Amino acid sequence: MSDQTGTQASAAQASDQAQTWRDDFSRVLSPVFGSPQLDIVRGEGSYVWDAAGKQYLDLLAGIAVNALGHCHPAWVNAITEQASTLGHISNFFTSPAQIGLAEKLHEVLDLPAGSAVFFSNSGTEANEAAFKMARRAAGGGRPFIIAVEGAFHGRTMGALALTAKEAYRAPFAPGVPGVVHVPYGDVEALEAAINENTAAVFIEPVQGEVGVRTHPAGYLTAVRELTQKVGALMILDEVQSGIGRTGSWFAHQDPEIGEGVTPDIITSAKGLGGGMPIGATITVGDANTKLLEAGQHGTTFGGNPLSCAAGLAVLETIEEEGLLDHVSEVSDWLKGQLAKIDGIGEITGKGLLLGLELTAGASGDSATGAADAQVPDSKAVAARALEAGFIINPVAPGRLRLAPPLTITTDELTPFIDALPGLITG
Known about the structure:
Shape: globular
Structural class: alpha/beta
Strand order of the largest sheet: 4-12-11-10-7-5-6
Number of strands: 17
């Protein structure tokens, strides 16, 4: 058998195996995620490999989850050591890993005395806990919670009510009552909506679902001032934007994004576990910590030693490897390279959470000239990228999202930059 024949046979076998796995997936797993794009079997650093052995540069990192990339030695060692010592103990007890991670969060957020961390298992659960706390604001009895158009806070019922996209909420109507969505960036609309019946304003410092966007200058300051004026809570959803993603520990700590505001509650997840499931609802100050009393909330797996050990390894590694500065440096280089590409318009976000606007008129985009060119289909661009070995996210029509590992290098990104013009034009 010739080398070429053998290669063709191996490719055919890999294709058959991939199809078998997809058939098995559709036979035994829920259809809620649709058909999987890849069968990923291994990861290392910024790369993953499929069952056929094809390598992909992962520019999504599990949707901003794999902060240290895939299988970082510090993360693997922390999980391995913890698993060999203690796996699960329920919430009747605590563990050094749980206390250690909570202490580290207190440190990086510079929390005042009386602040506290409640651990859960995901971002939506972290927001559910914050939702319940909001119901207790100002002693309870405040029926309304405000969220912002374009927001995504999760898919469980309370978090879903906060999520702006009607298509997500409609199949599950009537849903949880009392949530009002105000127009993005409109301070006057916010001021008109907020009053003594408002329990809280939920807001992401960086909105991810709509294509990665920060708020207009002064908006978060206005949220803080208006909530304090009426005694409502300001709750920052940092599920996607936290844990070094923007070049600060949390996005609101960046003066350009957070404008120096101090929220009442912060929610975190995704990058916090670096690939292990974990969520955190962080109350700022004693009064906010007391919004929930013993027995009013809980979760069996919250504060699980394995997940907490992973989370502590993530935070310590970010610190030890200087990844906050690294993220900012790589981001500056990446945005500079992207700005040179025909077909890329506005670049939004910060650090390694970026949104790319696709524009009409890229070279080769239209046979009849730029005047008739159409904005490239973001899904088609992402599909071509996947075929070429790059994982990116078509987060919204005409927009791509990049959220690679915080450890990614400019050398690793260069092949993507070189390929992107052709991926856009097809």
